[in-house]
Recover the amino acids of this structure.
């Protein structure tokens, strides 16, 4: 009888699609952090796991294509939250940031809900190519001078 190893085999992460998708920007990331106690208590009271709450936050903010029904209001609040925090405003105007979100949402709206797996696979391939093009378009866009420096 041959013995089988009981050690866990290390999972190999897929290669990044873009060179910069490493370190803090790695797509397949494992986070280990302390949840704020109040957040944990709130999740328990509402019977929602912290993972579920954080995943919903990320899906809604990224204007994801799956599970969109009834989430437009939450998504709009999260976009306003993102802008209120000033994220990206050292590179883009608020109007640009809102346009970025509109374009992300448009791609999510194209998800083929009433179709077979073959069409979903085609959509996923197109979406991935489009998102890379879209990212490069915005990343290469001339960025405005930071607001903080303009005030000086």
């Amino acid at each position: 009888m041959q013995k089988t190893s009981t050690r866990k085999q290390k999972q190999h992460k897929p290669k990044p699609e873009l060179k910069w998708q490493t370190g803090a920007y790695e797509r397949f990331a494992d986070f280990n952090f302390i949840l704020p106690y109040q957040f944990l208590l709130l999740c328990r009271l509402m019977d929602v796991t912290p993972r579920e709450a954080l995943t919903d936050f990320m899906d809604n903010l990224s204007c994801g294509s799956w599970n969109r029904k009834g989430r437009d209001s939450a998504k709009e609040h999260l976009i306003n939250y993102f802008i209120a925090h000033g994220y990206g405003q050292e590179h883009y105007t608020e109007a640009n940031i809102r346009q970025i979100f509109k374009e992300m949402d448009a791609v999510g709206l194209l998800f083929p809900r009433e179709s077979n797996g073959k069409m979903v696979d085609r959509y996923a391939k197109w979406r991935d190519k489009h998102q890379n093009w879209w990212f490069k378009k915005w990343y290469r866009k001339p960025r405005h001078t930071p607001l903080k420096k303009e005030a000086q």
About this structure: The mean pLDDT is 83. Residues 95 and 151 are 19 Å apart (CA to CA). The two ends are 77 Å apart (CA to CA). The chain has one domain: 36-145.
